[in-house]
Amino acid sequence: MFSLRTASGTVLIAPSEPDDTGAVRYTLTGAVKGCMHAVATHNPSDWHEFNAIRVSLGAANHMEEMPAELPRVHNGRRCYHGSIVRLATDAEPVWRPGGLGLRDTDDRDAPPRTGQTLENIMRACADDYAARPDFSRLLATAKARETPKLRKWLADMIPDAERDMRRCQAEAEAHRRRARQVTAAWWQAARWCAAEPAPLLALALAATRGSLADQVRHLPLWAEIADESAQFYRRLLEHYRAEEAGLRQHRHPSRPAVAAATP
After folding, report:
1. Phi-psi category of 9—alpha, beta or left, where left has phi over 0 and alpha has psi -120 to 50?
2. If the chain, 263 residues long, is cut into consecutive pieces of 10 residues, what is the mean pLDDT of each piece?
3. What distance, in Å, lies between the first and last C-alpha atoms of the chain?
4. CB-CB neighbours of 7 under 10 Å
5. Residue partners of 31: CB distance under 8 A and separation at least 6
6. Nearest 5°: phi and psi at 39?
7. Residues 254, 258, 262, 263: is their CA dihedral positive or negative?
8. DSSP per-residue letters across the chain
9. What is the pLDDT of residue 194?
10. What residues pair up with 95 in beta bridges, in sequence order?
């Protein structure tokens, strides 16, 4: 057990031994009552990198189980949920919010003082978890537990990204092809109008909404936007494939130089 001084008072924090998933339960008493969990997990930006710790209020994984004993600050009337992630770096740990931030059970943001108190406790629990002598084993446990699920998600996401990339490429080419056709039609109408002016031809040549001139101006822009979207999905696809390739390699993660963080 260890204690932590916070803006809301002193909190006593008692860690359990890791469960089968590698999660450690931290029971809180004193200025804050309830519990939070810390568990090794994948990097939220690079799924094949297992160098992170997720600390969550209540349940170890609120996406899979109902939180129990959500933390309540002393004299407070509301309980809070949320998570934070700690990533390993060569110098200082990088912290990220694990979702929408710390919110109460009525889905309202935690007041600043309460939020600071809970975040400081979460960081302290992450530090304690990262300092465990069996931390490398917990990272290996996380990789074995999460890899099948992550690979299944990627198996669905990779084809979607491929389809989106090809769709955007086809849209860009269609816009360019249509732009060439409309430009040729505009010049033909211009030649006819020069030879024999007519109101309808003049209307087609004017830059009114939906006219030939309007399409000549906008179709190349639409093609450029579609190209940019195709490039976005291409980069996303390359990232997904790299993650999938990394997950296929069954390396055991080594203990990071500084500790890990959570999504």
Report:
1. left
2. 89 92 92 91 90 85 65 78 79 70 80 88 93 92 92 95 97 94 82 72 68 83 95 96 87 42 36
3. 26
4. 13
5. 6, 8, 9, 10, 11, 73, 74, 117
6. -150, 140
7. negative
8. -EEEEETTEEEEEEE----TTS-EEEEEEESEEEEEEEEEE--SS-TT---EEEEEESSS-TTTS---S--EETT-S-BEE-EEEEE--SSS-EEEESSS-SEETTS-BPPHHHHHHHHHHHHHHHHHHHT-TTHHHHHHHHHHHHHHHHHHHHHHHHHHHHHHHHHHHHHHHHHHHHHHHHHHHHHHHHHHHHHS--HHHHHHHS--TTSHHHHHHHHHHHHHHHHHHHHHHHHHHHHHHHHHHHHHS-PPPPPPSS-----
9. 72
10. 86
Which pLDDT does position 251 carry in this prediction? 52
| Cβ atoms 48, 42 nearer than 8 A | yes
Using CA atoms in the order 205, 211, 213, 219, what is the torsion angle rounded to 10 degrees?
A: -160
Predicted local confidence at residue 262, as pLDDT? 36
- Residue of 192, 196, 221, 217 lying closest to 207 (CA atoms): 217
Instruction: State the Cα–Cα distance between residues 81 and 59, nearest whole angstrom.
Output: 9
- The C-alpha angle with vertex 80 and arms to 131 and 111, in degrees rounded to 5, equals 100
- pLDDT on residue 263: 35
- pTM of whole model > 0.90? no
Q: Enumerate residues 6+ apart whose C-beta is below 8 A from 4.
A: 10, 11, 13, 120, 121, 124
State the Cα–Cα distance between residues 203 and 193, nearest whole angstrom: 10
Pairing verdict, β 32-41 and 52-57: antiparallel
